[in-house]
Amino acid sequence: MGKLGSVAAVAGGIGLVALALAGWTRQPAVQGGASVTGKVKFTGKAPANPVIDMTEEPKCKAKYTAPAREQIVEVNPNGTLADVFVYVKSGLPASYKAPAPTGPVTLDQDGCRYHPHVFGILVGQTLAIKNSDGILHNIKAKGTKNRPFNISQPTTMTSERTFTASEVMVPLECNVHGWMHAWVGVLPHPFFGVSGTDGSYAIRGLPPGTYTIEAWHEKYGTQTATVTVTGSETKTGDFSFAAK
Amino acid sequence: MTTVAATAHGAHAHHDDRPFIRKYIFSTDHKIIGIQFLFVSLFFLLVGGLLAMQMRWQLGFPGKPMPGGGILPETMAPGGVILPEYYIQLVTMHGTFMVFFAIMPLLVGVYANFLIPLKIGTHDMAFPRINMWSFWSFFAAGLVMLASLFVPDGAARAGWTMYVPLSARHDLSGASLGQELWSVSIILVGLSSILGSLNYISTIINNRAPGMTWFRLPLSVWSLFITAILGLLALPVLSGAAIMLLFDQVLNTHFFDPAAGGQALLWQHLFWFFGHPEVYILILPAMGMVSDIIANGSRKPIFGYHSMVFAIVAIGFLGWIVWGHHMFVSGMNPTLGSSFMVSTLIIAVPSAVKVFNWMGTMWRGNLKFTVPMLNATAFVAMFVIGGLSGIYMAATPVDMFIHDTYFIVAHIHYVLFGGSLFALFGAIVYWYPKMFGRMMSERWGKVHFWLTFIFYNCTFFPMHITGMAGEMRRLYDPNQYTFLQPYQPMREFISISAFLLFATQLIFFVNFWWSLFKGKKAEQNPWHDNGLEWSLPAPAPHGNWEKVPNVYRGPYEFSHPQAREDYLPQYVKLPTDREPASAPAAAH
Amino acid sequence: MHWWLPPKGSTFAGPIDGLFIAILIITGIAFVVVESGLIWFIVRYRGRPGRKAFYTHGNTRAEVIWTAIPAVTMVALGIISNHYWVEIKGRNSVPPNAYPIGIHAKQFEWQVTYPGPDGQLGTADDFTVRNQLHVPVGRPIVVHLSSEDVIHSFYVPQFRVRQDIVPGMDIRAWFQPTVPGTYELGCSQLCGLGHYRMRAQVFVHTQEEFAAWMKQAAQEATQ
Q1: What are chain B's domains?
Q2: CA distance A173 to chain C (A)
Q3: If you count residue pairs, one on B and one on C, with CB atoms under 8 Å apart, how many are there?
């Protein structure tokens, strides 16, 4: 091949190694600065949530001045819908790695109800299940992609569990108090939010890109929207669910 | 058959040059197999007891951290406080270990194996290699069951009776692999029992020594014979049911799933069709050994030997047609409730006959209260209570009320502990010299007996009371029910008695193990008994006899007018005796 | 603390408790005879040097007597028991005018369905309440038992009524309460980790109270 050829081969080799190294040490998609915020509106007449009769559990009943109601359709005074889980369904690069969770997510059983009723958690993040009532609750997680679990808490205590697979949504229930339900969205990224008492949600720290955002409600199903963000801009993504 | 028996007959009763592994580990010698069953079963008896101690902690001191509970994982007892799902595992595994891995193998695995060839006069079992497999499948079953305690999601938790659908559906029980391992283990236990039964039946029918006619067999052998028949016919049903359950659990079959055309009650019928003969398997050998020990301790022949044999056979036969009495309120057709009630009431009669005959044996005897005799007498006294409490359950309207309450738990434990376990304590001490060539300590045996007797009654008698009050079984915390709260002091009393009862058993365990090495060397016939086994040195050698002895009389000829001593062994020839013609079984 | 059976609360309690006492007397006699006999023998026939035991193989007459007496007793007991069994659980035992209530058992609660003002189960005015069983005194009640998941068991100690509830089967059980008051219904067949908490309150009302409760509950249910 000759001297020139050898030099070329070595240079090529070094070049390839350099490229490989660059690729290997390439940082994962950095937390971006973009946000998607919005409101979840509700149109039509809000159905009444059934009253919960807690006579069988005096310790919980005592925590309420007016009888508690189930939390199926939570319409806010300003005509928006609370407890809607909004999340990035697709659009993140395949190489995206979520930052390590900063701490656990706490689910509290207080007054024989779950607090929060709808929430999100990262895959591998600790879910700290707290029993503030001091009476028997069992927490049954009926995941399909995640292994189901069913644990009891006969007294004031906290148990920890983690989820291993992305799943929207994993239903949680208590079999001792049949009215207790909660929903958890397990995601491999932190880009989710739950609409609050003013109907608004916020998803922050998005890297630039085009995303499919999905809004999930336990009774009214799902809706999607597409949003493109760059840099540190904030885009609006409103949703609207109608009474059936 | 004849060839095999002939081979066994011609086997070597002398020079034993087998390597250590063939002699003590993979042994085909019935005596070694019996001892292997003994060591392993005593271990499982301890396991069962430890599980019960945890249950009693929760019941006596609900919600309080258990001493030593810190070693348990968070999924069982966070901070040492037992969780409800762990409690029902304890309940399930206590029953499972005690029934299948302690009492049944102690009575049958140990004593059928050890005693039958010795007491009928032959060199070994009819099928020694099959006998070996009977032990090793039991051992494997035990390992699997033990493993199920440590797998993810924990052990089986539907009660030792394993009712479906709770046991078949992991989503309803919270268990998964543990539940499946239970089924696998039970299938292996069934195999062990069936292999053993084959041997016991064949050997007793075919290999009796010359002169050992059926009605000269000791009652221990009669009871082991009938027990073996029960085992041979009942365990396959259990194994079959366990296979069906396993298939429902892992293969998506629906034998027991009503949503797919299966039947939940099918499990109960199958389980109890096995389960009732099983409880007679758990008591008949004890009754048989008690007969031997009481006759010996009274220095008198057994009263009503033939009645005793007929009673054993009657119990064995009737035991097949009473299973529905476990299912009176199960949803089974109520007309069946009537028929099962009749058969159940009738089966009380042969048991009563046996109790009267034991009393008749002691009547006008010359009673010597050695440790075995103390335990055997306690058997009679406690079995009576257990048997009488059964009559309440047999009466279906009353059973409606006490079914699934602590009244049943009291009954079970009076017959299984007050009955079988006391009999076992007596039997272990009694045949210890023939097994190991040493005696257990008489003094510590008596201390163990008295303390056990007291604490045992303190533990289990009050359960009749709480059961009458309506206290249900398998409750993690009975105080959830207002009407059961007043009984908490009694639950605490029961728990403390149980702890003391458990602690007392350490005396037995230490006595057992220590005496193996330091016990007084045994003479050949320390109890002055009549059975063929006492003609052998202590411990009995491999192959038993060079030439099997001839038998001249029955096994209970104590205080015979023609004998110098107050006992007259079966193998001793008096001038007035004729030689037996030949072995009573098929000519070799 | 109560050392006896719970207070009577239904028409079954009389016969069942009576049967219990009869068995107590029979078994009590047997118990005393056997245990005191044993103790007597232990003392009287204890071994002493120079004593010889009485050599006998038995006594046929004794065998006949102590086989016959238990056998006759058991047969008599069976006949009496069966009479009540058929009355309580027999296929035709449910009184025709029994008030129907649906009970659907599930891990770990009792869903009690009332027939509503029209008194018929399965009509539009039925309503379901969790963990509360309200019944009128002095009337036969028939509960239609069904299970959502595993085997449960309907048990009210004072009513002396127990019936397993099997998924895939529709089972009826009946009882007639006799004493107004509050009682407890417990699940009497291991049904999972919450078995110990599967409890309902039972209210036995006078006829007027029951009618008033029914009216109010039916109204609340429609809200």
Answers
A1: 2-12+24-535 (1.20.210.10)
A2: 12
A3: 292
CA distance B379 to C105: 42
Same domain, C62 and C117: no
> Which of C127, C129, C130 is the mutation pick for testing A, counting most A CBs within 10 A?
C130
Among C77, C149, C184, select the one facing B345 at the smallest CB separation: C77
Question: By the CB < 8 Å criterion, does B411 face chain C?
Answer: no
Residue length, chain C? 223
Asked if the C-beta of C113 comes within 8 angstroms of chain B's C-beta atoms, the answer is no
Over residues B210-219, the pLDDT tens digits come to 999 999 999 9
pLDDT, average across residues B58-80: 93
Per the CB < 8 A criterion, the answer to whether B166 and C165 are in contact is no
- A121: nearest Cα among A41, A42, A188: A188
Instruction: Fill in the amino acid letter for B80.
Output: G
Return the residue in A139, A150, A173, A175 with the most chain C beta carbons within 10 A, the one to mutate for interface testing.
A175
Per-residue pLDDT of B272-317, as tens digits, reads 999 999 999 999 999 999 999 999 999 999 999 999 999 999 999 9
CB contact under 8 A, B475 and C195: yes
**Are C194 and C129 in a shared domain?**
yes
Residue C83 backbone phi and psi in degrees, to 5: -55, -50
Topology of the domain covering A30-242: Immunoglobulin-like (2.60.40)
**Contact between C42 and B377 (Cβ < 8 Å):** yes
Of C107, C131, C223, the CB nearest to A56: C131
Judged by a CB distance cut-off of 8 A, whether residue C57 touches chain B is yes
- Note down the domain range covering C79: 13-47+54-89
pLDDT tens-digit profile of C53-69? 999 999 999 999 999 99
- Which residue type, as a one-letter code, is found at position C199? R
ipTM of the complex model: 0.96
Same domain, C80 and C117: no
Is the domain of C171 the same as that of C206? yes
Q: Are C110 and C165 in a shared domain?
A: yes
Q: Is C48 within 8 Å of B366 when comparing Cβ atoms?
A: yes
Residue C144: inside a domain, yes or no? yes
B474 in C contact zone (CB under 8 Å): yes
User: Is the residue at C2 inside a domain?
Assistant: no
Q: Which residues, 6+ apart, have CB-to-CB distance to A10 below 8 Å?
A: none
Question: What pLDDT, in 10s, does the model give residues C15-45?
Answer: 999 999 999 999 999 999 999 999 999 999 9
Residues 6 or more apart in contact with residue A38 via CB below 8 angstroms? A86, A200, A201, A236, A237, A238, A239
Are C114 and C212 in a shared domain? yes
Q: What is the pTM of this model?
A: 0.92
In the complex, which subunits touch A with 3 or more CB pairs below 8 angstroms? B, C
Asked if C5 is an interface residue toward chain B (Cβ–Cβ < 8 A), one would say yes
Please check whether residue C1 lies inside any domain of the structure. no
Which residue has better confidence, B424 or B13?
B424
User: C142 and C68 share a domain?
Assistant: no
| Whole-number average pLDDT of chain B | 94
Tell me if C47 and B366 make a contact (CB, 8 A cut-off). Answer: yes
Domain positions in chain A are: 1-29, 30-242
Q: How far apart are CA A242 and CA C126, in angstroms?
A: 30
User: What long-range pairs does C57-64 form, CB within 8 A, spacing at least 24?
Assistant: C57/B301, C57/B302, C57/B303, C57/B304, C57/B305, C58/B303, C58/B304, C58/B305, C58/B306, C58/B307, C58/B357, C58/B360, C59/B303, C59/B304, C59/B360, C62/B304, C62/B356, C62/B360, C63/B304, C63/B307, C63/B353, C63/B357
Dihedrals φ, ψ of B269, to 5°?
A: -60, -45
Chain B residues in contact with C6 (beta carbon < 8 A) = 469-470, 483
**Nearest chain B residue (CA) to C154:** B329
